[in-house]
Amino acid sequence: MGIVVQKYGGSSVATAEHIAAVAARVGRARDSGQQLVVVVSAMGKTTDRLLRLAGEVSEDPAPREIDQLLATGEEQSVALLAMALHARGVDAVSLTGPQAGMRITGRYGSGIISEIKPDRMQGLLEEGKVVIVAGFQGMNALGDVMTLGRGGSDTTAVALAAALDADRCEVYTDVDGIYTADPRIVPEARRVATVSSEEMAEMAWRGAKVMHPRAVELGALYGVEIHVRSSFEEGPGTAIIGGDKLEYLGNLETRETVAGIVHDLDVSRISLTGIQTGPGTMSRIFTPLSERGISVDVIVESGQKEGTSDIAFTVGRGDFEEARRLAGEVAESLGGVVEGERELGKVSVVGTGMLNRPGYAAGMFGAMGRAGIPIRMVSTSEIQVTCVVPGDRVEEAVRILHEDFRLEERDV
Questions:
Q1: pTM summary value
Q2: 174: Cβ–Cβ under 8 A, 6 or more apart, which residues?
Q3: pLDDT 10s digits, 339-370
Q4: Do residues 268 and 214 both lie within one domain?
Q5: Which residues contact 313 (CB under 8 A, 6 or more apart)?
Q6: At 50, which helix (H) or strand (E)?
Q7: Is residue 412 situated within a structural domain?
Q8: Measured distance CA(24)–CA(21) in Å, rounded
Q9: Domain count within the chain
Q10: Cα distances (Å, whole numbers) of residue 33 to 129, 132, 157, 211, 293
C-alpha cells in the first residue's frame, strides 16, 4: 500500500490518554500495511500557555525567541507519541520540522514553506518505521527554527503529503467532518460527505475552523486528497477533493449549489467618510495597515459625490483600535472623518457556481430582511456571498439561512 499522512490536532493529543488513543489508531493503520507519516500539533492549549509565559518574562519578546519557544510544544508531542507507539510494539521515529527537511522562508511567526527535502523520511519509511513529524515548524536559511503561524500543522501535513506523493492526507480533529453549518448553532446541520477544495478554502477563509485555508489551498494546488475525521470515534468524515478528482463528487452541474453556511465573530468595521479621493488614495489607506501586519477583508467604496467618497473595510477585533487610529490619520489628511464599529460578525453562504445561478444573494438578503437583521456590508464572488452584520445577530442569521436554504433536507 502507499503512503498516508495523518495529522492530529492539539485536542487529539491533549492528555496522555489521548496520546495513547492516537497511538492505537496509528498502530491499526500500520498493521493494515500503510506507510505512515504522522504530523502532530502541540498538546491542548500548550501554545497559548507558552505565549503567556513569554509575556510574563518580557513585555516585547523577540519574534525569533518566540519561535524557538513555541516549537517546543510540537516537539513534546512527537516524542510522547513515539514513546506510546514503542509501548505498543510499533517501530516509530520522531522528527522535528527541520529534521524532516522542512525549509521555511519569510518572517518569524508567519513563515511559508519554501522546500521539503523528504530523503530522510523516505528512508525511514523504507525501513518500515512510522515517521512522526512536528507540525507548525521548519528551518530558515540561517538555520533557525521558524514557525508557520497558527494552523500551521494542517499546512505541514498537506505539504508533506504533496512532497511524498501520498495517497491522501487524513486530518483528525475533535469533529467528525465538515457540516452545512456549525452544529453547535444549528443542531440540524448535516455532515457533508464530499466538498470541493475551492468550497472548503472559501469556508475556511470565511470562518470555518475545521481546516486552515492555507492547507486547503495547498492541497488543491498539488492535488492532495484530504479527509477530515474525528479522533474520538470511527466514521467516514468528509473528503475534500478537487482538480481531476472532481468527478468523485458526482452529479456535476446538477448537484446542489450551496455547500454550507459559515460565520465569523472576529469582525469589526472601519469607515472613512467624506474623504477626497484620487489616484493613490487606496494605497495611502491600506499601506500603513499592511506595514503593521493588519489583515483587511471586506472592502467597500461608495460612489463619488463632489470629489469625495466613503471607504469602509473590515479587520479582526484585536486590530480594531490600531486600524482606526491609522485610518483616522489618513482620513484627516484627506479632509474626512473616521468611524468604527467593533462588535460585528460575518455570515457567508458558500457554494460552487453561485454566480451562474441567480437568486442566492437575493434569497440571503430576503431571509435576513424578514428577520430584521441589518446588513452593514456585502462581499460577493462566484463562490460566496458574505454579509457583515451586528455580532449579536450572527447566530440567528446562521440558523435562519440554514433553514431558508433547506440544507437539513439536501443531499449535499
A1: 0.83
A2: 9, 11, 12, 230, 231, 232
A3: 999 999 999 999 876 766 667 888 899 999 99
A4: no
A5: 269, 270, 286, 296, 297, 298, 299, 300
A6: helix 46-57
A7: no
A8: 5
A9: 2
A10: 12, 17, 20, 27, 46
